[in-house]
Amino acid sequence: MSTDPRDKRLRVSILIEFEGANYVIDCGPDFRQQMLSNKVTHLEALLFTHEHADHTAGLDDIRPFFFRQGDIPIYAHQRVLDELKKRFEYIFETENRYPGAPAVEVYEVTNNVSFEINDLHVEPVNVMHGKLQVFGYRFGNFAYLTDVKTIAAEEKEKLRDLDVLVVNALREEPHYSHFNLEEALAFVEEIKPKKTYFTHISHLLGFHAEVEKQLPENVHLAYDGLQLEL
Ligand SMILES: [Zn+2]
């Protein structure tokens, strides 16, 4: 109903560009379109938050990156890797592979164990999406958390002194596995990042321009194509 391009939302994902390398968090059904519209020509790794289809269904479309670069490194919780193996068996197949099928290099993410991808330092943050464990990721003073409903006190400790936090705010009505706007704002109040962007926004939240006006200073709605420099 809106002509504002900021109201045209694809499924949630971000790309982190660091020292010339591209790292993408989650690849939902819109991954292909997102890579094309943002002219992404190489992909150094994919990190997954959890296995839900809106975060994983686009995995087959790593194909053009695989053709140029070879096996694409993927990072996820062991449970998520197992799920991906079930849904994309041919990608993980080691024998009699279908010619042209993409392949991945698998890395397990464990909570409380930070890791490096090339020179990028990554700290996993454990959050809960209803009853499902989900990983958020912290890179320096930037953190990306999506599909959060609750977060334990010890995990909140990992979110101190953030310059930028990206976190989900689904809609005004409560939801059993997502922060609604009120919960997301209360979380921001508690974590106190310098700046916050809300993501994983349902059309039910309302129009970008109208919602943005009601938000506190330093809290904004993210939108497709938004670029931040840190
Ligand atoms: Zn989701």
UniProtKB/TrEMBL annotation:
Q: Which keywords has UniProt assigned to this entry?
A: Hydrolase
What the entry lists under InterPro entries is as follows: Metallo-B-lactamas, RibonucZ/Hydroxyglut_hydro
**GO molecular function terms attached to this record:** hydrolase activity
Q: Which SUPFAM superfamilies match?
A: Metallo-hydrolase/oxidoreductase
Which superkingdom is the protein from? Bacteria
Q: Where is the Metallo-beta-lactamase domain?
A: 10-200
UniProt-recorded name of the protein: Hydrolase, metal-dependent
Origin organism is Leeuwenhoekiella blandensis (strain CECT 7118 / CCUG 51940 / KCTC 22103 / MED217)
